[in-house]
Amino acid sequence: MTERTFSIIKPDATRRNLTGKVNAVIEDAGLRIVAQRRIHMSRAQAEKFYEVHAERPFFGELVDFMISAPVVVQVLEGDNAVARYREVMGATNPAQAADGTIRKLFAESVGENSVHGSDSQENAALEIVQFFTDADIVG
Ligand code: CMP
Fold it and tell me: Helices (DSSP H) in the chain: which residue ranges?
């Protein structure tokens, strides 16, 4: 089924000029980038985005990292896009990520892991509206 997921190319990747290389992996996997914007997240935006992790010990570090440099927020569309993108990203910890995945190719650590992708269709919808309106998404 065609669906949408939300993606972020994180500061460790934008800093190393890897936006195009990450996008090539996304597109080669059959996902279509139907909205994309490079932004510098505010602290409030990052705290809201990661509010489900607010009680985790790494929350402060995670927010500091996400606002340390620009990110690229994206909407990806394709067959089973949520699950497909999670496959393409690889495991959260790059040391455990499969060959050919974005995190295996590019990520530096569990904290600085190059990309975010929604973990469910419900969260994809909630995350997309934090950064895009319907008019921004051209499928
Ligand atoms: P993401 O998919 O963006 O969602 C939550 C993020 O928390 C996750 O990717 C990781 O980058 C980050 N994270 C998870 N575990 C740790 C950890 N142990 N230390 C620092 N960051 C972490």
Answer: 11-15, 19-28, 43-49, 59-66, 81-89, 102-106, 121-131
| Closest atom, ligand 1, to C-alpha of 62 | 21
Q: Which of 4, 10, 103, 116 is catalytic?
A: 116
- Output the CA 138–ligand 1 centroid distance in Å: 30
User: Rounded to a whole number, what is the distance in angstroms from the first to the last CA of the chain?
Assistant: 15
* Number of helices (H), then strands (E), in the chain: 7, 4
> What is the reported pTM?
0.98
116 noted as active-site residue: yes
Q: Are 106 and 112 in contact (CB under 8 A)?
A: no
Strands 32-39 and 115-117, bridge-based pairing: unpaired
Per-residue pLDDT tens digits for 31-82: 999 999 999 999 999 999 999 999 999 999 999 999 999 999 999 999 999 9
Which pLDDT tens digit goes with each residue over 85-95?
999 999 999 99
